[in-house]
Amino acid sequence: MDSSAPNTLLDGRTAVITGGAQGIGLEIARSFVDAGARVVLGDLNEEAAQAAVEKLGGTDVARAVRCDVTDSTSVDALLAEAVDGFGSLDVMVNNAGITRDATMRTMSEDDFDLVISVHLKGTWNGTRKAAAIMREAKRGAIVNISSLSGKVGMVGQTNYSAAKAGIVGMTKAAAKEMAHHGVRVNAIQPGLIRSAMTEAMPQKAWDQKMAEIPMQRAGEVGEVASVALFLASDMSSYMTGTVLEVTGGRFM
After folding, report:
1. What is residue 153's predicted lDDT score, i.e. its pLDDT?
2. How far, in Å, CA of 31 to CA of 27, rounded?
3. Is 55 helix (H, G, I), strand (E, B) or coil?
4. In angstroms, rounded to a whole number, what is the distance separating the alpha carbons of residues 183 and 75?
5. Where is the signal peptide (predicted)?
6. Whole-angstrom Cα distance, residue 214 to residue 57?
7. 202 with 196: CB under 8 angstroms?
8. Other C-beta atoms within 10 Å of 195: how many?
9. What is the pLDDT of residue 200?
């Protein structure tokens, strides 16, 4: 694509992104706005989400809503902002997530429950609530953010790996339910992506992960966002129930 030409892949469409105040979520929002979309950012940190709206160009193109994805009424309010504020819900990106890493021996039940609840129940809430709106319009795209941890399992992440694997199964089941309604549901599994969270990793852990990557570098948030844009747009119109790995070839 000619980078100087305007990108109109999502012209006139409205996208909701959970966990949209920072990191991969914010970069996805930026790529969507650049493609002509209006975006609604849902995040527990409303202040950070409001700051993100300013970065994206203000309330004409972006809105911020405090959202707890584990609470279905909170997700309803988030989606209502898209429908009432911008007139439609065309794309849903379920990206909100947290980590509470610990070995099985030391992990508390609360840390297991919380990670499962945010990732798995949160993605279920976002998927089912968005699908209910989209089926009325007979079109829509849902993009769920899983992780390479859901494919291979990571030490210290029995909670996170289980939740991210669950997102894959949920994506495929939802894709089968929604295909005849014109709604597509796909997932992305990022590998090691450079962000504030991963850069806080101990150097030894970083080096070990790097050694597993054939492309010999970490990914950038923009490299996940461009795949989300592809899945959100008509470029992927005959794709549903797929899982796209953005990993630099790690664990292929």
Report:
1. 95
2. 6
3. helix
4. 19
5. none
6. 37
7. no
8. 18
9. 87
How far apart CA 200 and CA 105 sit, in angstroms, is 24
Whole-number Å distance between alpha carbons of 178 and 44:
28
pLDDT of amino acid 196: 80
The answer, as to whether pTM is greater than 0.90, is yes
Q: Delineate the domains of the chain, giving CATH numbers in brackets.
A: 14-241 (3.40.50.720)
Q: Which of 125, 99, 121 is nearest to 16 (CA)?
A: 125
| Residues known to be catalytic | 160
Maximum Cα interatomic distance, the chain, rounded to a whole number of Å: 54
Per-residue pLDDT tens digits for 29-72: 999 999 999 999 999 999 999 999 999 999 999 999 999 999 99
Low-confidence ranges of the chain (pLDDT < 70): 1-5
Residue 201 is predicted with a pLDDT of 87
Count how many residues are written for the chain: 252
Nearest in space to 231 (alpha carbons), one of 23, 122, 29, 91: 91
